[in-house]
């Protein structure tokens, strides 16, 4: 989703100085040109994809998190409970690439 420039004035945004290895700037520039974006927009898009804000992706997994919490509540095996905690934690911060598949019995 593109944001209007006036909505996010650059003088109000965080700034970060970055050193790049030789040749990386040229590769980023080429990819940015290919996508019709500035280098800054290309880098921001890559970072947003890799580090999505939890509130941006949480809605994608809320049903699965609820199912896992139901399973967790009933689970008595400490190792299984720890495993479920880790899966839930991954879902909270995961992007689109992380998916849980449940069978008809509610197992995953």
From TrEMBL:
<dbReference type="InterPro" id="IPR013321">
    <property type="entry name" value="Arc_rbn_hlx_hlx"/>
</dbReference>
<feature type="domain" description="Arc-like DNA binding">
    <location>
        <begin position="11"/>
        <end position="49"/>
    </location>
</feature>
<dbReference type="GO" id="GO:0003677">
    <property type="term" value="F:DNA binding"/>
</dbReference>
<protein>
    <submittedName>
        <fullName>Arc family DNA-binding protein</fullName>
    </submittedName>
</protein>
<dbReference type="InterPro" id="IPR010985">
    <property type="entry name" value="Ribbon_hlx_hlx"/>
</dbReference>
<dbReference type="Pfam" id="PF03869">
    <property type="entry name" value="Arc"/>
</dbReference>
<keyword id="KW-0238">DNA-binding</keyword>
<dbReference type="InterPro" id="IPR005569">
    <property type="entry name" value="Arc_DNA-bd_dom"/>
</dbReference>
């Amino acid at each position: 989703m593109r944001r209007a420039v006036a909505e996010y004035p650059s003088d109000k945004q965080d700034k970060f100085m970055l050193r790049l290895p030789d040749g990386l700037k040229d590769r980023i520039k080429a990819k940015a040109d290919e996508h019709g974006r500035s280098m800054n927009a290309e880098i921001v898009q890559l970072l947003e994809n890799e580090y999505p804000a939890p509130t941006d992706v949480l809605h994608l997994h809320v049903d699965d998190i609820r199912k896992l919490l139901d399973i967790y509540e009933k689970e008595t095996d400490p190792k299984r409970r720890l495993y479920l905690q880790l899966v839930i934690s991954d879902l909270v911060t995961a992007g689109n690439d992380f998916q849980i598949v449940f069978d008809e019995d509610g197992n995953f």
